[in-house]
Specification:
Elements lengths: L7 E5 L7 H12 L5 E5 L5 H10 L3 E4 L4 H7 L2 E2 L1 H6 L4 E4 L5 E4 L2 H13 L7 E5 L3 H10 L6 E5 L3 H10 L4 E3 L3 H5 L4 E4 L22 E4 L8 H8 L4 E2 L2 H16 L5 H12 L25
């Protein structure tokens, strides 16, 4: 970017729960920037007008549920990755005044999986629960992993089939969740199940013991699904590592400099807590039926 943006915002509906302002403002303060990252709740009916008005102001920021697909349609130009995913979570205005839409969720997810597995993903079977924009970002990442295959399951089978068809080189749809998870090395929840603190997408007891678990939902003290999986000796993480990393990459797009990730994580830990202090999972955790995609940012 040739000049700093006039404003930095998170656009979503709702956004009050988001941790993005917490860690983005910590990074801005560490940088010594006068900018303040704001969360702006934008109802879907108003999103187009707000997004274009912010572009005219040369603002930049993030987009979260339910606006990622709309932002892709409204952007003047998409990066190849955003075009591949069909969703925008990061935007800025270029020197010519065009709104550029990008997707940093893909690299954020890839980073979280590498950290969880302790290696670059390769030759693994992935079970993906969900078929929205977050699931598309997962598939865009997995498409780059050598020798990987992804089984996609969604409550609405047609959506799973349509998404898998877009990533036919790596993905196929499954009609039954049991078939998707049966031989999985990695199980990913890309739905909103768990946001309420109670629901889980699938009982960890039904997963292969070797499987690692990634929940794109995040909550203070981690999600119930992550804590239940970890209690069975499984490697598991919630959506926080992906959230912080996609935010760090967005920060670099806006300002042309990498943020202090340690400052970001320190702010997150103070605000939300992390695994060492997480309470034990409830024994009666409710298993919910997945459908919608998670509120990421």
């Amino acid at each position: 970017m040739t000049a700093p943006p006039s404003r930095l915002l998170l656009l979503g509906h709702p956004v009050a729960h988001s941790l993005s302002p917490t860690f983005q403002n910590a990074a801005l303060r560490r940088l010594g920037s006068p900018l303040v990252y704001e969360a702006l709740d934008v109802p879907p009916a108003s999103f187009g007008d707000v997004f274009r008005a912010l572009g005219a102001q040369r603002a930049a920021g993030n987009v979260t549920v339910p606006h990622k697909a709309a932002a892709a349609t409204l952007s003047d130009r998409l990066t190849p990755l955003a075009e591949r995913v069909g969703a925008v979570n990061t935007f800025w205005v270029d020197a010519g005044g065009a709104i550029v839409g990008d997707n940093t969720d893909v690299h954020g997810f890839d980073s979280a999986v590498r950290e969880l597995l302790g290696r670059a993903p390769a030759n693994i079977r992935v079970a993906l629960i969900g078929a929205g924009g977050a699931a598309a970002a997962v598939l865009a990442a997995a498409d780059r992993w050598p020798g990987c295959a992804v089984a996609v399951w969604n409550r609405t089978a047609a959506r799973a089939q349509a998404l898998a068809a877009r990533f036919a080189g790596v993905a196929h749809a499954e009609d039954f969740l049991a078939d998707a998870i049966r031989r999985a090395d990695l199980v990913v929840n890309a739905t909103s199940v768990g946001l309420d603190g109670q629901g889980i997408p699938v009982d960890p007891a039904l997963l292969p013991r070797r499987a690692a678990v990634v929940d794109l939902v995040y909550r203070p003290g981690e999600t119930t699904w992550v804590r239940l999986a970890r209690s069975r000796g499984m490697r598991a993480c919630d959506g926080l590592p992906m959230l912080v990393e996609q935010g760090a990459l967005a920060f670099e797009r806006w300002l042309g400099v990498a943020p202090d990730r340690s400052a970001m994580w320190e702010a997150v830990r103070q605000k939300a807590g992390v695994a060492p202090g997480a309470p034990a999972p409830r024994a009666d955790a409710r298993v919910a039926t997945p459908g919608a995609e998670p509120g990421k940012a």
